[in-house]
Write a structure and sequence with these properties.
The protein has 320 residues and is of the alpha/beta class. The protein folds into 2 domains: 8-150 and 299-319, Rossmann fold (3-Layer(aba) Sandwich), CATH 3.40.50.2020; 152-296, 3-Layer(aba) Sandwich (Rossmann fold). The protein is built from 9 helices and 14 strands. The protein has helices spanning 17-27, 67-83, 112-123, 152-162, 179-189, 231-242, 261-266, 283-288, 299-311, and strands spanning 8-12, 34-38, 44-48, 56-60, 88-93, 127-131, 146-149, 170-173, 192-200, 206-212, 219-227, 247-255, 272-276, 293-296. The chain has a 7-stranded mixed β-sheet, with helices on both faces. A 5-stranded parallel β-sheet has the order 1-4-5-6-7, sandwiched between helices. Strands 2-3 form a two-stranded antiparallel ribbon. Strand 8, helix 5 (179-189) and strand 9 form a beta-alpha-beta unit. Helix 1 crosses helix 9 and helix 2 (67-83) runs parallel beside helix 3 (112-123). The protein is globular, with a radius of gyration of 20 Å.
């Protein structure tokens, strides 16, 4: 470890100022002062209202609705910070939504995850801090250092504190591709493991074919990277119930909850659906879900990661 004598400054775009403030509270520093305005021609302009010269700057911005505005605001903030002589600029993107666009699986489409990575680098970011990428290979799209956090320690702690007999349950991966993530949580909980064999036929349609594993009479913990329309979640919960699950709990990193998601969750036979505060979940969505939506904070984890990056310590120790 080395001592970094440069000032540590944390700023926030408009997408998730509450998380940025909580991160600063954990770090014991004030949230940096900046402003974003929209001109009458719809152009954005960002302005830092304090000196950044020779500072170690972290800019917090989730790629949540409106996604394009969130990305553009981040790019402008990175560029402005570099122009203001910041010594280093780290883009802190708790939710990197374009991580879903990681490959060319149809003719004549863009690999948007790679394009957004290129834009962040072109704007001048020196490194990226993010959490639970939908496609981990997006990490490789960057030529700058990337610290990829996982929310599993937060999810595991929540289940251990709120569910009686948690270790006798089963962690259920809603897709074979999620087995690695589910297995990590299963080890933390010292519980069983199962997964669902499914086929996605469109962006909003998922067909579950079989549940592999034993959930009969068990408490089931469905874990995934994100929930958007909740189509996959409905299939997973129904299949778990059909196979004899006693209770079903759901925990994801990113609670996007688009379209019919809240109505589907309200009608779903689950105890609760938890997500972290990488994405802001309005109270109106909580009410629409019948109170089933819960939010867990990852601010302490991001604060520790920022502190470790600033002081030159290992970030991987946060997962031990």
């Amino acid at each position: 470890m080395h001592t970094n004598t440069r000032p540590l400054l944390v700023f926030s775009g408009q997408s998730n100022q509450a998380l940025a403030q909580e991160i600063c509270d954990q770090l014991g520093i004030p949230l940096g002062k900046s402003e974003t305005q929209r001109f009458t021609n719809d152009n954005l302009v960002v302005r830092f209202k304090e000196s950044l010269r020779e500072a170690d700057v972290f800019i917090v911005q989730s790629f949540s609705t409106p996604v394009s505005d969130s990305i553009m605001e981040l790019l402008l903030m990175i560029d402005a910070a570099k122009s203001a002589s910041a010594a280093r600029v780290t883009a802190v993107v708790p939710y990197f939504s374009y991580a879903r666009s990681d490959k060319k699986d149809e003719p004549r489409i863009s690999i948007a995850g790679r394009l957004v990575a290129d834009l962040i680098q072109a704007a001048g970011a020196d490194r990226l801090l993010t959490m639970t990428l939908h496609s981990p290979q997006v990490h490789g799209f960057f030529k700058i250092p990337v610290d990829h956090l996982s929310a599993e320690v937060v999810l595991a702690k929540h289940f251990e504190q709120t569910v009686d007999g948690v270790h006798d349950g089963v962690v259920l991966a809603p897709d074979a591709g999620d087995i690695k993530r589910a297995s990590a949580l299963s080890r933390r909980l010292d519980s069983g493991l199962a997964f669902i064999d499914k086929r996605r036929t469109s962006d909003t349609t998922v067909n579950a074919r079989a549940l592999i594993g034993d959930v009969q009479g068990k408490k089931v913990y469905i874990v995934d990277d994100e929930i958007s329309t909740a189509g996959s979640l409905v299939e997973a919960v129904n299949l778990a119930r059909e196979n004899g699950a006693a209770e079903v709990y759901v925990a994801v990193t990113h609670g996007v909850y688009t379209g019919p998601a809240t109505d589907r969750i309200r009608d779903l036979d689950v105890v609760e659906v938890c997500s972290t505060n990488t994405v802001v979940v309005p109270e109106s969505k909580v009410e629409a879900s019948g109170g089933k939506l819960k939010t867990l904070t990852v601010a302490p984890l991001f604060a520790k990661a920022i502190r470790h990056i600033h002081t030159g310590e290992s970030v991987s120790t946060l997962f031990e």
